[in-house]
Amino acid sequence: METILIVGGGAGGLELATQLGHKLGKKKQAQIILVDKNTSHIWKPLLHEVASGSLDTSTDGVAYSAHGAKHYYQFQHGEMVGLNAQRKSVRLAAMFDEEGRLVVPERDLAYDTLIMAIGSVSNDFGTPGVADHCYFLDSPKQADKFHRSLINAFVRVNQADAREYLNIAIVGGGATGVELSAELYHVAALAQRYGLPQINAHRLRISLIEAGPSILPALPKRISNAVRTELVKLGVEVLENTKVASAVENGFFTAEDKTIRADLMVWAAGVKAPDFIKQLGIFELNRMQQILVTPELQAKGVDDVFVLGDCCGCQQEDGSWVPPRAQSAHQMASLIAANILRRRAGKAMKAYHYKDHGSLVNLSRYSTVGNLMGNLTGNSLFIEGRIARFVYISLYRMHQVAIHGWLKGMLMILVEKINRAVRPKLKLH
């Protein structure tokens, strides 16, 4: 029986495991194995809500083991650290408990077909001090770490003199930095309801730092300008054309030798594929360390390996690269599932063509703006307000349906709404 090994349970990896589980695993035509270093899945575009405390991973996460049991794939908890392409095996690191005791030794997993879906990590571009003093939002664990520090900072400021402020500096004017900035103002307002009466938006000072001339550089100028206006209204200090030279314990130094003071610092200034991919010395990579692929999303020069998501270096006909977005991971997962089935049937595989359906930026409860790409005219449609908010939420709903199916997906949405109505709106632990 063929073994199909998927490394990475992000949006694309989990959707692919679900599709192949129903098409092959259920019929015992192939063994589908999903590997991830975490035990549960959180949709990555929501990690800024985990960091702020608006989203609780213990209730909103998807446990891989339970999900796999219902969708006909196996889950292996582990972190990939090696690959032997000749022997067709992946090496997983040893696992230890919180006391440092060995739980599972280093082990190898054999495969017939491998899918690399390991996502991306923040790129600090070698900036001194960033790794030591900044928070990153690459995983639920990192987002939870920032959240704990945020709550502690709220408690400290709540007990301090009324003239003391909480200074937060966020480097990176992309979607993560922008959405986190707005979400932090929202949770500051919520904190007053939960025993922190002195916390409000006026005691929160947020600096959003962007090295380029505009925040949201990948989006149309009209959208970035609209978002900038909304952020300034909230009180965010938007610092464009500001390059960070180094990070220290209490803030940043810019290339112009300006000091930006901060009690909490978040780095969200770019992504790259994890460093261990380069260390493997097996794949052809681009400057973001993404694995270069053929039009069919197979790794160049390596047999029986497909790549999807943020770690996939897929160059389009115009020379541009497919952007690391949830929508591209979703499209890649669907194509790879189809290509695996076509290959098994002896049919020619299809090439991948990225379809840009537009981009949306959600500024918490304050505003949502974005653009939708028209399927009929090919033009971009600017939307904002409630319509944009509805479309933004719908993207996550589509992901839930993709991994749970229509019936359970709808039930999950209903349960989520009930939970939001009865539980605290801010996670305080």
Report on this structure.
With 429 residues, the chain is an alpha/beta fold. It has 12 helices and 26 strands. The strands form 9 sheets. The chain has a 5-stranded parallel β-sheet with strand order 5-2-1-11-22. A 4-stranded parallel β-sheet has the order 15-14-13-19. Strand 14, helix 8 and strand 15 form a beta-alpha-beta unit. Helix 1 (11-25) runs parallel beside helix 10, helix 1 (11-25) packs parallel to helix 11 and helix 11 (385-404) packs across helix 12 (406-422). The chain is globular. It starts with a strand and ends in a 7-residue tail after the last helix. Residues 374-378 have low confidence and may be disordered. Belongs to the NADH dehydrogenase family. InterPro entries: FAD/NAD-bd_sf, FAD/NAD-binding_dom, NDH-2. Pfam families: Pyr_redox_2 (PF07992). Keywords: FAD, Flavoprotein, NAD, Oxidoreductase. This is NAD(P)/FAD-dependent oxidoreductase.
Largest sheet: 5 strands, parallel
Q: How would you state the average pLDDT, rounded?
A: 86
Strand fraction: 15-25%
Outline the low-pLDDT stretches: 374-378
Number of contiguous helices:
12
Structural class: alpha/beta
- Percent of residues in helices comes to 25-40%
> Strand order across the biggest sheet?
5-2-1-11-22
Gyration radius (Cα, Å) is 22 Å
Pfam families: Pyr_redox_2
Family: Belongs to the NADH dehydrogenase family.
Keywords: FAD, Flavoprotein, NAD, Oxidoreductase
Domain FAD/NAD(P)-binding: 4-333
